[in-house]
Amino acid sequence: MTQTLTPDLCVIGAGSAGLAVAAGAQQMGADTVLIEKHKMGGDCLNTGCVPSKALLAAGKAAQLDRLAAKYGVSYAPPRVDFAAVNRHVHDVIAGIAPHDSVERFEGLGVRVVQAAGAFDDPRTLSADGVRVRPRRFVLATGSTAAVPPIPGIERTPYLTNETVFDLTERPEHLIVLGGGPIGTELGQAFAHLGAKVSIVEMARLLPRDDADMVDVLRTQLRADGVELYEGARVTGMAAQGNGVAVDIARDGQAERLTGSHLLIAAGRKSTLDGLGLEAAGIACGTDGRLQLDQRLRTSNKRVFAAGDVAGGPQFTHVAGYHAGIVIKNALFRIPAKADHASVPQVTYTSPEIASVGLSETAARARHGDKVRPLTWPFADNDRARAERATDGLIRVVVDAKGRVLGAAIAGAHAGELIYPWILAVQRREKVGGIAQMIAPYPTFGEVSKRAAGSFYTPSLFSRRTRRIVRLLAKLG
C-alpha cells in the first residue's frame, strides 16, 4: 500500500546541505521528511572532504623523515602500508558517520526514507511506496564527478573521487586528469605516500587562483616529484596491459603517458537524473543547471535547492550557508538571498592556498587603478623562519580608501590564516582594524597584520611626516 505523508518540508538528499536543512528544520518545529537513495552524509563524508583530508594527513606523516631533516633530526625512511592507510581513511569516515546517521536523524524526529525519489507532479514526490506532499521541497542531491567525452574513455578503466578511496594497494603510477583542487590534493597525497604521479591540466594548475599563489604550490609539487603537464589537451586514452595510456597534445607536440591508474578529476556536475524535474515544473538552463533565483528557489516556487546541486561554489561550507538561506525562506518566509561574495575557498595541499573575495585581477577589472595589492612574504615572518616554512605569501586587495576587496594566502596554515579576511570582506571593513591589532609574537598570523600595515607605509614614512616630526622637535 502507498503511504502518503504531508510534512512541512521534504528534503531530497542527505549530504551536507540536506542534513543541515533537515536537522535545523525539525528542531525548529517543522515536520520533516528526508529522502536518501545512497549513503547518509553524501559526498563530503564518504567520497570527498573527509576521506581526502584523511589521506592528505597520512601523506604528510609519510614525509616526516624529509621534513625533520630541516631541523637536524633524522628518521629512518618510512614504510607505507597502503592497506593500513586505507583503513585509516575509512576509520575516520566511520568516526564521523554517526553524526550523519539515520538513527540520529530519526532520533531528532525526522522521517528518513532510504530510497530514490522522483516527482510525480509539482507538489508530489514518490519514493519506495511513500508519497510525499509537503508545503515545501528542498533539492539537495549534490554533485558527481564529471567525466569528459575523451576518445577511448569508455574502454579505459578509471577512478573518480567516488572510487579512489577504495584502493587498498598503492598505485605505481597515478595519472590525474585535472589540476583543480581535487586533482592537486589527491595527486600530492599519493605522491607523498610513494606513488609516481602525473597531473595533466588543460589550462594551468588551479586556474581560478592567484597565479603567484599557485607558483608557490607548483614549486612544492615539483619538489615532491609530481610531473606537471599544464596547457595539455587530452586527445585519447586506452587500456594498456594492466594499466592505462593517455595521449596528450602540448605546445603542438603529441605525447603518450603510461601509468598503472587513471584518476578523473575534471570538474563536477549537478546530480539531477531521475528526479522527474519536468513533471515538477522545474526548469534547467542550456548548461543543464537548475535555474534559481537569489532566494535559491527553482521555477517551481515550492522547491528550493541547496549545496552543490544549486550550481554555485561547491564547498561543504556553502552547503551549510545555503541551508540557512533555505530555512529562512521555507519556514519563516523571510526573503533571504544568497550572496557568495565572501565565500572562502581552500585547497588543502602542502602548502595550502586560501582565498576570499576578489583577486587582484578581478578587482582591477571592477575598480580600475584604484586597487592596491598589499603583499607580505612568509620569509619575513619569524615564526615561519623558526619552522622552516618560509615558502609562501599573503596578498590583500584593497581600494583607495583601504576597504578590503579580497585576500589570498599561500603557505603553511593558509586555511586558518584566511579567517580575519573573510570577516573583513563580508563586513566591507577597512584594513585599519587588522593593522592596529596587537598580534602575539611569534605567530604565522602576523603576516596579516604586516600586510594590512603596509597600506599605511607610504604616508607614515613620507616627507610630510618627516617635516612634521622635525617641526615638533623644534618646539621642544
UniProtKB/TrEMBL annotation:
SUPFAM superfamilies, A to Z: FAD/NAD(P)-binding domain, FAD/NAD-linked reductases, dimerisation (C-terminal) domain
Domain (Pyridine nucleotide-disulphide oxidoreductase dimerisation) ranges: 343-451
Domain of life: Bacteria
Gene3D superfamilies to which the protein is assigned, alphabetical: 3.30.390.30, FAD/NAD(P)-binding domain
Stored PROSITE patterns: PYRIDINE_REDOX_1 (PS00076)
Annotated keywords: Disulfide bond, FAD, Flavoprotein, NADP, Oxidoreductase, Redox-active center
Domain annotation FAD/NAD(P)-binding: ranges: 8-322
Cofactor: FAD
Pfam family, one: Pyr_redox_2
Family: Belongs to the class-I pyridine nucleotide-disulfide oxidoreductase family.
Name of the molecule in the record: Dihydrolipoamide dehydrogenase
Organism, scientific name: Rhodovibrio sodomensis
